[in-house]
Amino acid sequence: GLMGYDPAFLNTANCKSAITFIDGDKGILEYRGYPIEQLAEKSNFLEVAYLLLKGELPTEKELEVFTNLVTHHTYVHENVKSFMDGFRYDAHPMSMLGSTVAALSGFYPDAKNIRDERSREIQITRLIAKMPTIAAFSYRHTMGLPYVYPSNELSYVANFLTMMKHIGGAYKVHPVLEKALDVLFILHADHEQNCSTTSVRTVGSSQVDPYSAVAAGVGALYGPLHGGANEAVLRMLRDIGHVSKIPEFIKQVKGGEGEKKLMGFGHRVYKSYDPRAKVIKRVADEVFEVTGKNPLLDIALELERIALEDEYFVKRKLYPNVDFYSGLIYEAMGFQAEMFPVLFAIPRTVGWCAQWEEMVTDNEQKIARPRQVYTGATRRDYVAREKRT
Ligand code: CMC
């Protein structure tokens, strides 16, 4: 029979989900019904993680138990550390992150037990808890610095920053930067059926363990059209180099037949301003007050101003997305551009896990197995090798 042809799922719902709501025309994003702006202002990352995973905001006691659970699963097996040591010094940290998450599947054979609710909870806790450790280890490895072990008495974000930055003496996390990164983590925690989440669901639908499924998500997020965009934005701003060069750059984007893109602009779902980008602009001001302004900010602001007035971008409804300003903040905070996609993967792990849990417990879900429109040769007979021309 006739089947739907919908490359890249532009018009196909692949699942039912009760986690995240997006209205792309109005620029609305809600986690479990709560507007992203309210969560960014009033909540914190682990509370949002609880909300996404369990569907409701935690009570004081529930949050305490959850936080305690996460902070006590932050260590990785020493052999995981040795595994990471096997990479060359110039390995991209996102590549190290993905492979190491995949390796966890071998470290936790109990994770195969995906029909057991308690086991799923343990694996999800481990994933959320260990992601910052693996991320920081990846970075330290590429810098040739000794690994810093987790400190369980610190907040999720402060612990991560300490593992990243501690070099001798006592590293003290700046409270404004801690808060800023926490907000950025909230903004990145979930975004319904994006490329990486769809990958996690697709791989997970084979009933493989969640480490293998989440590793697929990291792989998808590594790409420059997805989580790699924040890194690409920074490189683009550096290439432009000066405000006076912007018009020339814009001209190239418009004439380039898709070859050159304005990175950090456009979105499959948002056809108006990305609500996350609005919050990020405010966070940027707070961070720059502490770190000093990122000199690339002027180029970014002018680029946005020109693009939002340019007919090409207006006609296509291309607005800044979450990645347009996040890289500027990360750079001001002292992160290398290679770490930007990693900084996206840490909080998105929560969304991947919430969506994986939802998929595994959904009776209507089966193994993902799309169909195709066959365009190859019709039936023909095998020709002996010596008779081929
Ligand atoms: N710069 C210039 N032109 C663009 C851009 C851009 N950033 N994005 C889309 N267009 C054009 C595109 O060439 C096409 O033009 P035409 O109709 O003349 O062929 C039109 O706009 C529609 O774009 P599309 O490629 O059909 O849209 P899509 O939904 O397939 O792609 C996207 C969405 C996010 C991949 C794309 O906008 C893009 O590549 N943006 C740059 C990369 C980026 O910032 N990614 C981050 C996405 S948000 C968070 C995340 O996932 O990490």
UniProtKB/TrEMBL annotation:
What InterPro entries would the database entry show? Citrate_synth-like_lrg_a-sub, Citrate_synth-like_sm_a-sub, Citrate_synthase, Citrate_synthase_AS, Citrate_synthase_bac-typ, Citrate_synthase_sf, Citrate_synthase_typ-I
A Pfam family reported for this protein in Swiss-Prot or TrEMBL: Citrate_synt
Q: Which domain of life is it from?
A: Bacteria
**Has keyword Lipoprotein?**
no
Record's catalysed reaction(s): oxaloacetate + acetyl-CoA + H2O = citrate + CoA + H(+)
Gene3D superfamilies referenced in this protein's UniProt entry, alphabetically:
Citrate Synthase, domain 1, Cytochrome P450-Terp, domain 2
What pathway is this protein a component of? Answer: Carbohydrate metabolism; tricarboxylic acid cycle; isocitrate from oxaloacetate: step 1/2
Family per similarity comment: Belongs to the citrate synthase family.
Its protein name is Citrate synthase
Q: Which organism is it from?
A: Corallococcus soli
Q: What is the lineage of its organism?
A: Bacteria, Pseudomonadati, Myxococcota, Myxococcia, Myxococcales
